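Can't paste images in this forum, so I'm doing it all in text. The chain is below; anyone willing to post the predicted structure tokens underneath?
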Amino acid sequence: MKRRIAWWCAALLTLVAILSLPIVAQRAPIRDLRLANFFLKWHLSEEEARDLAKWDVIILDMEVAVNTPREFALLRSLNPNARILAYVTSQEIRRDASEHPQSPLRRKLASAIQGDWYLRSATGARVSWWPQTWLLDVTDRGWTDALAAFVGDTIASDPRWDGVFYDNLWGGIRWFNEQRGALDLDGDGVADDPATLDPRWQDGVRALLTASRVRVRDGFLILGNGDATYADLVNGILFEHFPNTTAGDWAASMRAYARVLDRAVEPVIAIINANTANTGVQDPRAMRFGLTSAMLGGGFYSFDFGDLEHAQRWWYEAYEVAIGEPISGPARITDVRAASLAANPVDADGFAPGVYRRDYDQGVVLVNATSIEQRVRFDEAFELAVGADVVAEEVRRIVSEVALPPQDGAILLRPIEEIRGQPFTNGTFVRVLRSDGRVARNGFFASDPNARGRESVETIDLDRDGAPETVTTDGGMIRVYRDGVVFREFAPFGDPTRGALDFAIGDLDRNGTWEIVVVERDRGARLGVFNLLEGRRLSPYRTPFGPTWANGMSVALVRRTPDAFPAIVVAAGAGAPPEVRLLDHRGWATGVRFLAYDRKFRGGVHVAAGDTDGDGREEIVTGAGLGGGPHVRVFDAATQELRSQFFAFASERRGGVDVAVADLDGDGNGEILAMSATVLTAAYDR
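Text version of the structure:
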């Protein structure tokens, strides 16, 4: 009954803390690269909570939930899918635990410790390993039962925690006996036989883990820091100081890592923790070597300062690479001149110095675990996303060979060559950007043989049979191609020679059928909504800017809130102020309007929409028209607040920039596609 009451009290505390916070959007969890953060401060600031929400597994000191419950709740609300674990030492206690004012949980634990549970030397003195702590005797069932009870009653009973992280699950204690002096585990005043120390210590740790599993709720995770000794009793192990962990060098550590992935209790969370060896010098090669090694398996990756301070929020471009899901296991490359999947598959015991490859559905991971540079060749081309040869994010070369320095790794992506699910301007060069203007992927030329240059094109699976159709404009016509043949065409405004069109496709009324919203792009005032597969107009024409408007417009669809009907966004064409207006899904004005650029600008506005930052809310993206610079702006669709802005090409250019939003790499977030409005398109004209 007491545990149930404690559970509900903790749940109520979490709810109160969340309700006291400002409304915030949830971040999409990281999907492709699985990340962990080992963050051991006793307090959490709001800034730290917001940053930590980017990680998938977060190890926090157990005091955080008590000392800063509001920030803890913020972290949880920002990433409800994160696994948040409470840090507890398995074999030691701080010397000041009983009186430290900011450690209420340590005080509670210390109050249960009896004097004969401390680890002692043959002289009877208490012994210490970490500064200002006392070691406890893990072979004493009194201590292990008390710790398991504490975790069950205090940590696992709190629904805010997903699990516990036991630090220092040592595979033995003989090393301490040899370095610090003889130990007396049984308290008889006589030094114990060194040969008996490790087996007895392992029995004690196993007793702790077994007792803990009994005391915690179903689904509660138990992880630890160490090697694979206790893999069968935990959900995972963190391998600290990679590549030189307690398991040994890189090869030994990878074998232990693979054994944990193979043998641990489901769900398995194995973590590789590389660091700066307490220097603070962030060596890119060390970071890459750890990251790519972790990706050879199915675990998580952490990179921080070192064991003197696990409290970093370092974030790297490499963490944002969308490589997809693995389609093979790790394999050792036997011939670097032709690094194909014919390389030798590696099992849990097969890791040794060498060059390794693992394939994902969007790319390849390479690891050079040798002491010399290796040049690896492929029989296909890749985009080099992470590696020593990436000198800047703007430089993402297409390569068929990569140089790997010793103890380094690389991530290569299959090139993107097409846009699906969003209209694009045919025959233009496309830059693929993040919401803040950083390069997301290599640029490419987008073209479709069914359309002429500068016409709008969209590739979309209209009948959901797995084979996409192509929708194009051709002057004043809408044409739908299936297998390269026109199967539907119509003139949405009657006269097919009247002028160019812009369109947006979606299920406006959420009835399972596709609608197309068409506007007169270069001149005219009308907007029409049609059943796309039938070419039938569904409602009277609308004139969003008034019936006498003669400047044309661009169009997109946006969800202002996740559960809303799509709204229609229109942006003024050239010759008018750069105004954006929002209509409801039937085309009626909502009264929402804003200026995308300075009121004096008259070059027109290109518009697109989508979730560009993974927060679960869509943004409106604008691009300046002809005569303006390649100026892209990103607005919150719900509030019209300016979120970011940047120049997609050289700022001095005055050809404007067309925009689209599409998830090209399959990571769940839309990329901003900036299309050059001045690229020569004659080669695409028919």
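Confidence is low (pLDDT under 50) at residues 1-31, 679-686. The chain has three domains: 2-226, 331-413, 424-684.
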